[in-house]
Amino acid sequence: MSGSVEKKRVLVIGKDARTDAIAEKCLASSPEPEVYALTEFPIPGLIEKCTKVFMKPLTDRQALIPIVQEVCPHLAIIGPEEPLEVGFVDALNDLGVPAFGPTRRLAAIEYSKSWTRELLDRYDIPGNPDYRIFTSKKGLGQYLEKLQSFVIKPDGLTGGKGVRVSGEHLHSRQDALSYAESLLALDGRVQVEERLDGEEFSLQTITDGNVKIHCPLVQDHKRAFKGDGGPNTGGMGSYSCPDFSLPFLEADDLKKAQRINEQVIEALCRELGEPYRGVLYGGFMAVADGIRLIEYNARFGDPEALNVLPLLQTDFVELCWAVATGTLKPIARPFDKKATVCKYIVPRQYPQAAPRDEKIVVPNKYRRRDDVKWYWAASEKRNGDAYLTSSRSGAFVGIAESIEEAELIAEAAAQSVEGLVRHRDDIGRKDVIELRVRHMESLRGRGTRFRRTPAEAGVFSLSEGSASMRR
């Protein structure tokens, strides 16, 4: 795309803070492109940033065609998983529009958990836990008995809310059998896996199927309430470190996760005969004897994209174009070495339904600083004001030299929002991270020998008498 005088037109597809972050990153590209959005409701951030916003279901492949004919985009960037599952990239390719995202066949890495597990086995890629896929009730009870502690997963997309864990959601063997049987009745298969003990983390790898650019590792917090209580959500916030690893991991964990992502990208090409283009998001868990793969996503994570996109130092539109056209080149230093802490603002009742006529007000002072980003999510703009929906409203991301400083920035910003909203004030906090470090030390029997110094991990500021130490 570089070298042309014509102003580029980019079509961004999505309905969340991740989409708002993608649109903002596009506008920071040079020369500034015209950005258009296909979304499902009037998100304030997209209305403010885009030349035009189209509101259509993100599962309606036919609705995409007239929009592409009107906009004539040079590039399309897809945020969430639903458009990938129904083949938006395939439709865009048919219309001659390069797309940042995998085709429908390749996106099976996300929308079919069983296919993914079997792919790793076929290509002898490490990371699978003990698992079995059932297409009938035969042997199901015996396998549950063998595992004792287990996870039951539907095969397809459930927005991160279909997985149920023994001891948390399933309190008896009959609970487990009933849930597994309901999934069998729904789509003819169910996946049962051993329950893992460890710490979750994610690695997002940007690729054109050949060159792989690994993003900083991120740890998400899915539970609705402080202290990791309550039901799972789409994600209440997350953090990343300036060394691109996480405080509870060893160097070998990072290398293993990167190698697994690389092997999967290569296996997908061999399996399906076409390159995987977009983001491969690996959800991993560090356990006593290494790491295990929890699942794959076929796109940027939300909130994980909010941690890594502000740190990206290369031209985003050029990067996405290179990915979509198979011309990606290695980048020496793609990300700035800083820490990030993301905190989602949600309606007070979240994840329960909330009134849709309540205003949310975000102070403008937090939208003009380099050390904090505000991204609109499922809020609606009406008559110049922003209103809550039943989902996440938006997210602040603090950016600094250490997690300690980034958390203070994000927390101050989150506390400034007006409306019937709340957030988790413990995300990125020193005591919460310390619990995760101690958890891994206990599992791996390392004691204090396992621990990196604050400077190595980028967790806490080295300045004397820092604000977080005074809490």
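Above is the first protein from milestone M3; the second protein from the same milestone is given next.
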Amino acid sequence: MTKKLWGGRFDKETDPLVEKFTKSIRFDYKLATYDVLGSILHTAVLAKAGYLTQLEAESLTSELNKIFDEIKVGNFKADDNCEDIHTNIQNILENKLGDVALKLHMARSRNDQVVYATKLFCKMNIGYLQSDIINLISAIDELIVKNEGIIIPGFTHMQHAQPVYLKDYLGTYKKMLLRDIGRLEYISNNIKITMGAGALAGAPISAEEYSRTANEILNGELKEFKESFHVEPTVNSLDAVSDRDFVIEIISALSIIAMHLSRLSEDLIIWSTQEFGFVDIDEAFCTGSSLMPQKKNPDVLELIRGYTGRLNGNLISILTMMKGLPLTYNRDMQLDKEPLFNSFEIISLELKVLSGLVKTLKFNKNKIEESLKDESLYATDLVYYLVDRKVPFKEAHTIIGELVKYSINSGIKIKDMPEQKLKEFSDSFKKEEIIALFDPRKSVESKISIKR
């Protein structure tokens, strides 16, 4: 049993089952980098406030930097016997420095230590995720350029609606992803990094001294983190240790991203079916069947669609966990980490694999052109044709509806009907003008309300 950050008030050893049940190091080891950064800043604050000598501060900072470097190169291994990563790092310092390390926890509680490290983790990983989204947007842009000019059937209710440009269809997902970037940017900017909240009531060091000293270090030795990790004075220490709004907002934003990626995946799954045949997904991003040798399954896209449930579940779990908590910190809050880390991991991997998949997509122009022969796609254009000849819109809508119904029931295409038959529906019809309307390019170019 390893040394804990607490225990003076207790006579008994913790029950082994309690040890196992309350441990968080199996997942909060991901906070190691940010815990070390916080300890480096806290060391500087303690030294400035006179709680550490210069020599003690230098010894602590030196050992913390060594741990930081080990984490950076992947040589740091968390001790599974420790209660959490914060205890793990404290124990390493105590083994190296002895009593000097015992001074590090002055004016600090794990309550503020955890939230500080979690906020740093979130801000850093939001940045990584934004880069992943930008890469997917670039892949979509490449796909648009490669397939410039292609027109496809547009759908509402999964039924043929009107012809649209493929670039506009794909551009819709680009718009979604750009909103995702903006949403993440807003959340990141709204995460305020503070120090000195203690367990809940603050610490005997001024708020200004915390922020000023910490930012001096961030402007100097840790300048690579200057912009993201700027420390602000704590205004309300109770709120600082009890707030998990930022976790909820992030997981909510990640759930929205998951929903966007799921919708794109669903379109590609449908388009890749034999019934549609609009697009071919590269074999490198598909799997086969253990029984049916002909199968080429879009498993990657199906898993992206499926993982959306996991991300939505992560959001619900955090909202449910937080809904009944009294102020301030409660151990329930330990359970925010797994859903948070899991959501980041899933979305990052989805964005990366989808970027690769999108770059390989090949559109089947022959299949698409065949589907554009469906006359129902041009029904609205026929309505506009009549409106342009002074037929009231509602009347024109009814006329074309009846015309389409007759075409379906009789099995005769509208463009194959004699002009005399067309005039039974409206005297305004001229066959050669009607035939000209069954042109996908003419249809999309007639929609001038869209700024291109």
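Note on the second protein: The first helix runs from residue 16 to 22.
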